[in-house]
């Protein structure tokens, strides 16, 4: 697929990827970009679910399927499917990068317009945010340490910015707002 025209997209819009561990605030950031800045919203787990999941409501099943994709060398195919959903004429928020291949694929598809935000939060804070999904701390820790989550740390060094999210939602939105302004005014390095 190298050099294939569909892999090289028009670079007249912003593509902001959002990564971080479970409960860090990825979806809050992507939803903010969608609602306040009218970004088109694409989510890795939705693409994965539409492609392969037999039980799209089950997060444990999605983690297992995500791991099959990663371990089976299908991460590039997942990215091809995700990138195909990004409209060339719109700004886009991409929720849930989990692997260096995700970063590589989006960077290749949008060389001058892709920026990654790494959302960081303490484990205890993250668990409190997702207690509806993981009532027990042990269950949360199992999900958080699943092999499919283990490449996330490798994305930290590739991020345009690391966003600390241990405060309020308003604090998070304020930080994202500042970053969007910085990116838009040419802070693209």
Could you outline the blueprint of secondary structure elements for this entry?
Elements: E1 15-20, H1 26-37, E2 40-43, H2 44-52, H3 59-71, H4 75-84, E3 92-97, H5 100-109, E4 114-120, H6 123-129, H7 137-144, H8 152-156, E5 161-164, H9 169-184
Parallel strand pairs: 1-3, 1-4, 2-3, 4-5
Q: How would you sum up this structure, described in words?
A:
It is a single chain. It is globular and about 45 Å long. The chain has 189 residues and is an alpha/beta fold. Helix 1 crosses helix 9, helix 2 (44-52) crosses helix 4 and helix 4 (75-84) packs parallel to helix 5. It has a five-stranded parallel beta sheet with strand order 2-3-1-4-5, sandwiched between helices. Helix content is 48%, strand content 14%. The longest helix is centred in the C-terminal third of the chain and has 16 residues, at 169-184. The chain has a single domain (17-183), classed as P-loop containing nucleotide triphosphate hydrolases (Rossmann fold, 3-Layer(aba) Sandwich). The protein has helices spanning 26-37, 44-52, 59-71, 75-84, 100-109, 123-129, 137-144, 152-156, 169-184; strands at residues 15-20, 40-43, 92-97, 114-120, 161-164. Residues 1-11 have low confidence and may be disordered. The protein is built from nine helices and five strands; from the N terminus they run βαβαααβαβαααβα.
